[in-house]
Design goal:
about 35% helix; 2 domains; binds nicotinamide-adenine-dinucleotide; five-stranded parallel β-sheet; binds (2R)-2,3-dihydroxypropanoic acid; alpha/beta
């Protein structure tokens, strides 16, 4: 009997690989920092039975149709906007993600960006590192404070709730949110108020995005949206870069329509080095590190491995995102 094989698109914490190998699976990990092309991914999966996909490597219709033999695809991410789920479902390929285990770490980065932008911390730190700090001043590059301010959350889901908890706990911020559906449990727990998207734009001192990327949310933050925000507002996005229109954001910051921005996600990624956003003192950009802690990435790798083991044993993946395949 030939050994079942798992192809892993980028290196993952050893615990994930250990779980798969201990179950008797052969694990092949793509080496190096290069991002696999669709053709390379198809070739790599020809001899594989299961796929563990890290990050946002696109799982396209043409890849899926060429890899319909796959018993399961486990994502090491909670977002699955990069997967053609309709085709995976039509081909009967189960797909899983890694929710919950990364919510706290990602909310930490949203909080970090909110605080860092409010005090222009990354810009001032770079002044020191570049030898450009001229010494203590009393009025230049002043920041703003967060105590008692209003945090607006677009998408009060797993990560949005964690961000709201941190902001309320640390700065007693008022929480307002806009969501597809009311979240009355969170409203009670956080004394959060449901508002319209327009009210969210108008009332937020900090607006933090925590929705998934969809046709509905793509470029939801464009010039019209930024024009409706407070000129003292900070925009934070740790969800997906395509949810804000990057050129409109740069214009809004340049024209003083909003005060600052903190991004863990951009479009494209990596951000182009000549982006005007990188020259602005009240902008912090991080390289998509929301879930990038030892604890969280290990938990994600374990969760993805356990989902593949379920698929291999012809059981439903615990974190399946296309359960319709069983209908
Ligand atoms: N920066 C990172 O490294 C990182 C890490 C994890 C997740 N993410 C991103 O964060 C997203 C959220 O993750 P999560 O676990 O909190 O997901 P979730 O599903 O728990 O929360 C998403 C929330 O957005 C809401 N929503 C969706 N469309 C909406 C719309 N058009 N208007 C208003 N609300 C809308 C949903 O109702 C839900 O409450 C992921 O999809 C992913 O893109 C990024
Ligand atoms: O969706 C996620 O989990 C993060 O963006 C990492 O891919």
């Amino acid at each position: 009997m030939t050994t079942k094989k798992v192809f892993v698109t980028k290196d993952i914490p050893a615990k994930g690989i250990q779980l798969l190998e201990e179950a008797g699976l052969e694990v092949v990990v793509h080496q190096g920092d290069s991002t696999l092309t669709e053709a390379e991914l198809i070739e790599a999966c020809k001899e594989a039975d299961l796929l563990l996909n890290v990050g946002q490597l696109p799982i396209t219709k043409s890849f899926l149709e060429a890899s319909s033999h796959l018993q399961g695809i486990a994502l090491a991410s909670v977002g699955f906007d990069h997967v053609d789920l309709e085709t995976a479902t039509s081909l009967g390929i189960p797909v899983s993600n890694t929710p919950d285990v990364l919510s706290g770490a990602t909310a930490d980065v949203a909080f970090l960006l909110m605080l860092a932008v409010s005090r222009k911390a990354f810009f001032r730190s770079k002044e020191v590192m570049d030898g450009k700090w001229k010494g203590f001043g009393f009025t230049e590059e002043l920041g703003i404070e967060l105590n008692g301010k209003t945090l607006g959350i677009l998408g009060l889901g797993r990560i949005g709730i964690e961000m709201a908890k941190k902001a309320k706990g640390a700065y007693n911020m008022d929480i307002i949110y806009h969501n597809r559906n009311r979240n009355t449990e969170a409203e009670e727990a956080l004394d959060a108020k449901y508002v319209s998207f327009e009210e969210l734009l108008a009332q937020s001192d900090v607006l933090s995005v925590h929705t998934n990327l969809s046709d509905e949310t793509r470029h939801k933050f464009n010039k019209d949206a930024f024009a409706k925000m407070k000129s003292s507002a900070i925009f934070v996005n740790t969800a997906r870069g395509a949810i804000h229109h990057e050129a409109d954001l740069a214009d809004a910051l340049r024209d003083g329509q909003i005060w600052g921005a903190g991004l863990d996600v951009t479009d494209p990624e990596p951000m182009t080095a000549d982006s005007p956003l990188l020259q602005m003192s009240n902008v912090c950009v991080l390289p998509h590190i929301g879930s990038a802690t030892i604890e969280t990435r290990t938990a994600m790798a374990e969760m993805a491995a356990k989902n593949l083991l379920a698929a291999w044993n012809n059981k439903q993946m615990p974190q399946i995102v296309n359960a319709d395949i069983y209908k």
